[in-house]
Amino acid sequence: MIETRGLSKAYGKTLALDDVDLDVPVGSVYGLVGPNGAGKTTLLGVLAGLRRATTGSVAIATSRVGVLPDTPLFDTWLTGREVVDLALFMTNGVHDDDRVTTMLEEAGIADAADRAVGGYSRGMLQRLGIAASLVADPELVLLDEPCSALDPLGRREVLDLIARMRGSATVVFSSHILADVQEVCDTVGILRRGRLVFEGGLHELLVGKAQPRYVVRLRPPLEPVVAALSAADWIDEVEIVGPEQVRVGAGNLDLLETRLMPALAPAGAHVVSLSPEAPSLEDVFLEVVS
Amino acid sequence: MNLWRLEWLRLIRTKRIVGLLGVYVFFGFLGPLSVRYMEQILENFGGGVQIVVPEPMAADGIAAYVGNAAQIGLLIAVGVAAAALAFDAKPQMGIFLRTRVASIREIITPRYVVTTVAVVGAFVLGSVAALYESIVLMGSLPVADWALGTLFGSLYLAFAVAVVAAVAVRAKSVLVTVMIVLGVLLVLPIIGIAPAIGEWLPSYLVGAVDGMVRGVAVGEYIRAAAVTLALTAVSLWMAVRWAQNREL
Fold first, then answer.
1. Which chain A residues are Cβ-neighbours of B84 within 8 angstroms?
2. How far apart are the first and last CA of chain B?
3. What ipTM, to 2 d.p.?
4. Which CATH class is domain A212-277?
């Protein structure tokens, strides 16, 4: 859906984007993550046609693009319904009251649809922006921090909305909330100082970074178990990581898979569960950008 | 909702149309009235001193209206136009519009046309009020010449809104736009102090309605009108060109 090659954007002597080769598959939900100032908004701006690349090329396979800025703003004297209706008309040249109503309902602001936008909270503006971005049924949706102003319920609804678009539209969204990216994205791009330092499937990213560690959930007391495990010479690390959780690390996963269970019984452990420690996107992200 | 209705609603719901009409029509009535009763007004403020002023003519009523319209009216008109045409002043609003239209002209055209119609309409209504009251209070006026003069004044206002359009797409805020445009519009009459140049400038049209009801020939304003038309077109072309090149 999107392909950039050698994409760079300079502001004076500062390179906001540096030789970015982006590949966004058709129908994917692509998460763009990176620290503040990494170039996420600039990259989305270039993809949306709002900024010109200094060098390189951008190829987008559709002209039906929906764009949501990080803090959407509208004329305060319009109603929410009028904003979405205007967005639909500007894009497709048609009026469709049913479509507008459906989008307002899906975005969770149907009750406030006929109120002036000036009275909306930031979260409601974000929802309205999402409705306005999706009302024309775009094939590509560019969302800049779509959940940044939302309460937990709103965030859940927006993530569900994005997840439902998978397959029918291609979604690129930037976010600081890595849990959101991990939840809904199938492809991830990590930007650091304008460079795309990782791009690929989320699974590929996380599996490649998996550590040889298990998390064991136990009934208290934990200390005798920790002492017993620490005495084993094949175990590198034993750490209490929660009220009923112990993390155990070894030289490789094979050791843990074959020797951890037999080691727990003699230690008097009341085991509730045990499983390999899955790396979170946050852990991997911190490792990649550091 | 479309972009033309959006601009109409902007004028109505923000009550800017009331401000525009109010200012121009108010001065349309106030100008001739103040001229007609100037002697009495001055006497009331003069503490018993008798002040003699020349017998007012109907054309003086028009001149008083033009004087106020060219200052306070123009200030309001530029403010209203800047608020409509500086659509990138808040980038998020600019993004909403720009990412949905095929051409930037689709945004600029309705904003320019609707604002110009409102400003010119207010000016014409004020001019009608001034004409009516001047005739009632001070005697007859050549209505055909007044109409042509009002047309020239309207052309100047269309030019002023076009300058706003050009400046608004470069400036970062509505206030900066207003300041720059007022600067440009104030510089023109200063340049025009030299008669050989002044008769070619758009600012020459500001006093056209006053001049024409006093018998100045229409040909006197043709050169300035032609230059104003050309500069209006250039300003609008620049507005589109600069808006296309602007990054958000």
1. none
2. 25
3. 0.86
4. alpha beta
